[in-house]
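INFO worker-7 received task bundle
INFO bundle size: 2
INFO processing item 0
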Amino acid sequence: MKYAVENKEIILDTSGTECPIPVLKARKLSQNLKDGCIVKVIATDPLAEVDFKHYCEQSQYIYLDCKKEKEKFIIRYKFKKKSS
């Protein structure tokens, strides 16, 4: 899986994929994240914003924002480890 780190944010580029692939890639990435990491997802699927709001709500992550830049959606959320 491709991701990068820039400005202390983990960037996951899911461009060209459609629901549910962006969320599935984010879920796989979460297995390697530390508490408090900011994830920036780049998506082209217009449904990605709604999907990530729901994903964050279900996973108890903190949804930060979504911005549209040209044909891409930039979604940011804060990873939070689940307490046992």
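INFO item 0 finished
INFO processing item 1
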Amino acid sequence: MVKLPVKISLRHRGKFLGLDSEGETMTLLDPTGEPLGAVSWEAVIDFIHGSISETQSRTAVRNYPRSRLAAKVRYLTPDHKHFDSVTCEIGGGGVFIETHLPSQLGTAIALELLLPDDPTTPINAQGKVAWIRTGEEHYAFFPGMGIQFTEISEEGRARLLSMVKALDHARQGS
């Protein structure tokens, strides 16, 4: 891993970026070398492509809208470990799962989402770990992992998008 010091950015001076060419990941390291979070090169490349497009904003590239929502989620890792957790955000393209034990980037995850609109009818999906946050950030962001859907039914995606739309509508007071 190549470690590059952060020198100019005042907010992050003293931290390091660790570049792993084998795993194609970029890890933010604190001054002692402890990882704070990681992202795949694919996500960085998508972000850069999105930032240079005239029609896209300077936020991460997303094909579907998302919204903050705490919903129950059960997931299964490739080594057959079952976990119950809570989402922090949902969207048509994936979810963020709160956990102090995130899986490695690229790990395949089987998901069962229990949304508040009908908790008796779960949405089943397959996904992969697209990014991780290993620690809390300023008590505002929970540790966990961003899961990008690799397989989800059209009905499941439509239900998620309907939930996102309803949440956004309610938050705007309309």
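INFO item 1 finished
INFO post-check item 1: Residues 53-60 have pLDDT under 50 and may be disordered.
INFO post-check item 1: Residues 2-52 form one domain.
INFO worker-7 idle
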